[in-house]
Amino acid sequence: MLSLLLLIGCALWLALELRVGAARALPYPEVAAAVRSVYEGEPLLADYRAVEAMVRRGDIEGLSAFVAEAPESFLRYRTLLALARDVRVPMARRAAFYEHLLAAGLIEPLAREEVRAAFLEVARVAELAGQTERALDAYTRALPLPAAALGVARLEPDAERRAELLLRVGAPADAQRALARAPKPPPPLLAARVYRALGEHERALEQLERLLQAEPTHLEGRTERAWVLLALGRTDEAAAAFGSLDEVARTRGLAALAAARGAYAEAGERYRQLAERSGEAGALWRATEMLERAGEPEAALPLYLELAQKRSPYRTDAAYRALVLAERLGDAAVAQRAAALLPEDAYFGALRHGLPELLPVSRLERAAPEVLERAAALARVGDREAAIGELLVALAAARGSEAETVALAEALQDLGEFRRSAQAATRWLERGSRDPRTWHVAFPRAYAQVVERYAAAWGVEPELVWAVMRQESAFYPRAVSTSRAMGLMQIVPATWAWLAELLDDAAADPFSVADNVRFGAFYLGSLMDLFGGDLERVVTAYNGGPGYIGAIAALEAVQRDPEAFYRLIDRQETRDYLQKVMWGYLVYRDVLGDTRVAEVQAARADPP
């Protein structure tokens, strides 16, 4: 997919020519006829030159015809964006152009600030075009931008519906304000959900009691009330409330209640029953945790083995834990079965089976798609964004050929685009490729000079920095997460402010490659000092926080048995993060070491 941010940058020349924001079309100055096109003299860029000429003439109809007739290409997307933004184009047509852009999947999901700004732009055009439903949807996607909130308020006058919308997108405080301005009291269930999302459980309970006085059999109200009572620590009342629900809801609630009371054996059995009745893998994983806490690893082992054979996020975790427990319990047959369930190209699999052996030399045939020459021509004339864009369009169409995918990805990485190029190569790794060129592109040494400089400055291996960067941002410098983590190394604002103070650099930019890598490498170095160089602790602390990981590492169970560290991390995200970053680190360090990189570079220059 092409990045909307990339498109915006590439469209600057069109925006200037079309006078985006002007009240009317401006005649093109006569002297412009003497201006030489940057695409002049490049036969492969004749269409770029033709579009540029239409722009200079102010030929809106010609540009519209071009986007209607042209095949999928970066130039078509660029022209679509310019037309969508041109005030001389009727609003309804501009809205249609935006629809085409959105349908093409042009928005880079990691660039959340730019994504929100783009949807805000779409919303404004759709609203002016009278497309209220489309505008409301776009304003909602642009939340929590203040202008987006105003748009939602403007287009959705009903306070209750507005509050539901805001609650659904994770803005409970805004939902509460919407209800406070409502002309009548809100429905109790909606008010209770808002209060519960805000952590105000007493007020949520008041609303639910009010609802159930009027409608004693209201199922959602009864369910919400049971969970609120549990959150308030009123366990006897919660037990009675859960006991009146249907079988699955009752089992789920009583399992949580038993866990809260410390009755781990009971909780384990109830979670096992929940998994059996609902088919939820998460319930089975929770059952194993409770049984281990109860000191019953023998009872947990068959559940781990069962979970390791299901398609779920817990599959690898369960297989590795089954292996550990089976070996500890002396069950060689189960240990062998568990080891066979560990994926080879993954961290836990590498611990058991060793690292993959790549081919000694690349066997990919020479692939020279025509777009490589076109991209080179665009780069020569200084249109780097278009060069990247053309390669990305071709990359999306090259999924059936490993050689072509790798050739395009290498060209993209030469231009500094690492995210989608690495993702395309990774898909071939998932199909079993052992070609070193493919692995090199899937695990690029992105921004090598910067990474090597700051890794050395803070005493961190550059391979660790790349492994963290690959997982955190997929090498996209303007990535923003749902928790507002920023840039290549995905540093949250509070940590960024702390690091800026330590490094005495308040002016540092989280979206600068150099600044973000410098801060991220410094933070990794600090964690290395804190955890005595234990990489697994360092990696999990980078994701989950040093306080959280430090508390787990200090547990008596972990002191007795280091293998318990993995199991006692109760956050799925952090467990997955550990495996993916440590796998990347091993690949960068041991599979694609310096010698291998030199071999791959030579193979690129002289393929078979």
List keywords for this structure.
single chain, 608 residues, mainly alpha, Serine Threonine Protein Phosphatase 5, Tetratricopeptide repeat, Lysozyme, 0% strand, globular, TPR repeat, Lytic transglycosylase catalytic, Transglycosylase_SLT_dom_1, Lysozyme-like_dom_sf, TPR-like_helical_dom_sf
Brief overview:
The chain is an all-alpha fold. The chain is built from 37 helices and no strands. Among the domains are: 166 residues, Serine Threonine Protein Phosphatase 5, Tetratricopeptide repeat, CATH 1.25.40; 76 residues, Serine Threonine Protein Phosphatase 5, Tetratricopeptide repeat (Alpha Horseshoe); 143 residues, Lysozyme.
- The helicity comes to 55-70%
User: What radius of gyration results from the CA coordinates?
Assistant: 28 Å
Count of separate DSSP helical elements: 37
Determine the mean pLDDT. 87
Number of strands: 0
From the N-terminal CA to the C-terminal CA, the straight-line distance is 31 Å
Architecture of the domain at 4-169 in CATH?
A: Alpha Horseshoe
Strand-residue proportion: under 5%
Domain Transglycosylase SLT: 451-549
Protein name: Lytic transglycosylase catalytic
Keywords: TPR repeat
TPR repeats: 185-218
